[in-house]
Amino acid sequence: MRFLIPLLSLLVLASCKPQSVSINTFDPSLNNPALESFLHSSGTAEKSIFTSKNDVLHYTRFRMGDSSVDAYVQDQIKLIEALYQSHETPYRGAVSVSVVCPAEFQPVKKEGDDTAKKYIAIKMFANSRLIFGSCTPEQKKFQAFYIFIYCKNLGLGYELKLFHDAVEAPLDFDGLLSGFVCKPPPA
């Protein structure tokens, strides 16, 4: 976990050339056998997956200006929120008529907008397959975060899906969000 928080900040700070991103572009000190990186570019997005012993980070950087990016983010938020809404069971029984996610498993949503960046973030739980929507202690494998940050001055959007082992000390949501700074990369 020691490298993921600084890595998250560096990823937002980094503005790498499309088609030529490598792990060393973000931080040369990340040459670590515990770290695996897989990268590909497609259209207006660049994607990476970083893993460590207890954490997984799915990172996507979008070149903004494409109106479909905003629609994509809104769709992702709606999908996540729908996972936690009460709904009727398909087969009603004597015990339950609806499925409800208990309050302690409900997601926490935060939004912010200042002169440099705009963000939307959701803190929740995920299962062992990195799927959002865990609503029971048996399913809760990861403390999960969905974060989308738009850096206004760079014209870049960053989608982060961070999964932190639920057995470990929980991550500070506010601290995580306040660590992101949008500024141009060094020349």
Characterization of this structure:
By secondary structure, this protein is α+β, with helices and mostly antiparallel strands. It has one domain. 20% of the residues lie in helices and 34% in strands. The chain has four helices and nine strands. Strands 1-2-3-9-8-7-6 form a seven-stranded antiparallel β-sheet, with helices on both faces. The chain starts with a helix and ends in a 9-residue tail after the last helix.
What is the topology?
Blueprint: H1 4-13, H2 23-26, E1 36-42, E2 45-51, E3 55-63, H3 67-83, E4 87-88, E5 98-99, E6 108-113, E7 117-126, E8 142-151, E9 156-165, H4 173-178
Antiparallel strand pairs: 1-2, 2-3, 3-9, 4-5, 6-7, 7-8, 8-9
Q: Please, how many helices?
A: 4
Unreliably modeled segments: 1-42
Strand order of the largest sheet: 1-2-3-9-8-7-6
The proportion of strand residues reads: 25-35%
DSSP strand count:
9
What is the total number of structural domains? 1
Output mean pLDDT: 75
Alpha-beta content class: alpha+beta
| H and E order | HHEEEHEEEEEEH
Instruction: Indicate the overall shape.
Output: globular
Using brief descriptors, characterize the structure shown.
seven-stranded antiparallel β-sheet; 4 helices; disordered N terminus; two-stranded antiparallel ribbon; 187 residues; alpha+beta
